[in-house]
Amino acid sequence: MRNKAAVHYHVMLIPAIVILAVFSIYPMFGALIAFEDFKPGKGIWHSPFVGWDNFRYMFSLPDIKQIFYNTVSIAVLKIVFTQIFAIVFALLLNEVRNLFFKKTVQTIVYLPHFISWVLLGGIMINLLSLDGIVNEALKTLGIPPIFFLGSNRWFPGVLVGTHVWQEFGFSAIVYLAALTGINPSLYEAAAIDGAGRLQRLLYVSLPGIASTIILLLTLDLQNVLNAGFEQILNLYNPMVYESGDIIDTYVYRAGLREFQYELGTAVGLLKSAVSFMMIAVSYFLASRFANYRIF
Amino acid sequence: MYNDYASPQLKDVLQTDGGKALELATVDGKLYGIPTMGTTHNSDPLIWLRKDWLDKLGLQPPKTVDDLVKILQAFKDQDPDGDGKADTIGLPGVDQFSKTSAAGAPAFYGYDAIFTAFESYTGTWVRGSDGTVQYGSIQPQTKDALAKLNEMYKAGLIPQDFAIMKNEQASEQVVSGKAGAFFGPWWAGWDPLTSAIKNDPKADWRAYALLDTDGKSRSLQETPIGNIAVVKKGYKHPEAMVKLLNYGYQEQLDDPAVAGGDPYEGMTMPNWQTLPISFALWRADSVILDHNGILAASKGEELPKVGAATLQNYKTQGEYWSKGLDWLRQHPDFYGEPLSRIYGVDPIIENNTEPVYSEFYGVTPTMDQKMTNLDKLEVDSFIKIITGEKPLDYFDDFVKQWKQLGGDQITKEVNEALSK
């Protein structure tokens, strides 16, 4: 044994590995359902094997193109806007000197992340309905009421906007932490060279957190097919199915009809495969161009 | 095997819905399992109105949809809550305003009663005059119902954004006193009315049934079959399941002492989920039966023959009811059940509401694939017609589209399945 002390470290890992094996790895065999004509009576191992049929079925569903488009576009918009907002916010907050203010603000922006969409959905519907506060405010400005939750034009905006509000806090805190890691002498050097505040921001802070940006983007990209099921389920209604239906909400409605385990599993497997590809691609790009390594 | 081992009481219970559930669980003459039933009249949409507002404005309770429209207009315009502000509305809105094929029953706050008044049974399979089974939503009567709803929308009796509201928002309108009318089932007394009474103890909520254009009262029922208890093929003692269900019956609906003691002693109702086979048993006619029971208990009359737990409930609720409406309104925690069971069920009995069932409760292959989409098309088209975005004749386009996008195929499959 190279190092006797190392044994007990491995022993400490055992409970975690057991949990991983039982709850994450063993259920992976359930992915087989995606390739079968699943009959609950026969179980996973004995149901007839049908190959790619379930996937073919999924792609033959009407509107599948619109649904995929919605899913990807909503997800991409969410990722992009959340990160931009978080970066700008972090850069700005970093310039604030009052420590107490800084810390308080950090905590406050993080809180919405914990609110469940079952609750938030009701709140948003109240705020954004035709006689809600937002439209009242618009009325006083002389603007006609906007049907936020009932119009296909505005609904994606509502989804992205509320998501940004909820999630930018987390990313912002990570960026703030990264910003404190930038060597202060770099700022001094830039100031000596005549860089103003904005230029210091653009040429010292931003590149300094570039690797963090790429890390967070990599973590987010794997969610590109997720697009926020909980949020959309609680906010949407038949009027906005066209722009708001994502893969998960459609499968949810289709699956209510009959317990379509195969469709659900096939969709889940497809999404996992895509997110795996996205991580691989972004990690490759990151390690090539940003000299970034996780392992 | 069912016939041999089921106790007579179990057989009785399963007949209380007219044998519908058993019929649905039987294929080619063989009973495939023991079903749970839907409860008759459980989801019949009634119009709940504030009688105190009706009295104040000198209005009569409604019998037809047109009566209701007049009442809603008055509620909206004539300030029935007397606070000098135009803050009262007609009906609250909800996103599930018409039953689709995916829904098991008419939704709370839905406008199904209006559709049904025109004999348009959306999301249901109806038998046409030519003997074949057709889809209710595409029948011409639906057009009449939509016309009426469009009228109501234009008059402001339905909120402009009714389709984005969920149940919580609609309940809020009722509880806060903005809405004096809403469509709900007989059990609305529990929710939202308990909260509404807490907010305004002077409100006098009553329920009424709307009559169809021919003067009769009909209501769409919830799906008449739920879970089915089955036995794995080749199991050595299939009769054990039936015996366990007999036991379940004893526990839930009869005298537990006969079954050898009550493991749940001290609780008002045994929790069916912890029984050996978690199979909830109830009588499908319990809505009317319980109403009669509680009414009788409040007057000190003879009570119907029911299980111990239910009997106890009759006595308790009957006692509350005999204390009068004012006492109930002062004690909102006890308000819900007696109000629902008496006032909520009254209109069903008075008008002898006829239950309407779908001709087909199964799923066909094309339904699997295309029905979600057809439902999407249906709700979308209805909303556009009601809000006036599309003219009434758009309905005919919708019907054409529905048939083309798979509706005809599905109708064919349903008829084939039924003729077997």
Condensed summary:
Chain A has about 300 residues and is an all-alpha fold.
Summarize this structure as a short list of keywords or feature phrases.
heterodimer, A: 295 residues, mainly alpha, MetI-like fold, 14 helices, 0% strand, globular, B: 420 residues, D-Maltodextrin-Binding Protein, domain 2, 3 domains, three-stranded antiparallel beta sheet, two-stranded antiparallel sheet, 17 helices, 11 strands
Describe the structure.
The complex is a heterodimer of chains A (295) and B (420). With 295 residues, chain A is mainly alpha-helical. Chain A folds into two domains: 1-51; 60-289, MetI-like (MetI-like fold), CATH 1.10.3720.10. Chain A has helices at 6-25, 43-46, 53-60, 64-94, 99-110, 117-128, 133-140, 155-180, 184-192, 197-221, 229-235, 241-244, 247-257, 261-289. Chain B has 420 residues and is mainly α. Chain B folds into three domains: 2-42 and 222-274, no CATH class; 46-220 and 357-419, 3-Layer(aba) Sandwich (D-Maltodextrin-Binding Protein, domain 2), CATH 3.40.190.10; 286-354, no CATH class. Chain B has 17 helices and eleven strands. Chain B has helices at 2-5, 8-15, 20-24, 51-56, 65-77, 112-117, 140-154, 167-175, 193-199, 239-253, 286-299, 308-322, 325-330, 336-344, 346-350, 365-387, 394-419; strands at residues 26-27, 30-31, 34-37, 46-50, 125-127, 133-135, 181-184, 205-208, 218-220, 225-229, 354-356. Chain B starts with a helix and ends with a helix. The mean pLDDT of chain B is 83. Chain A binds chain B through residues 41, 57, 60-63, 121-122, 125-126, 129-130, 147, 149-150, 237-239, 241-242, 250, 253-254, 256-258, 260, and chain B through 95, 102, 159-161, 163-166, 168-169, 232, 363, 367-373, 375-376, 379-380, 383, 405.
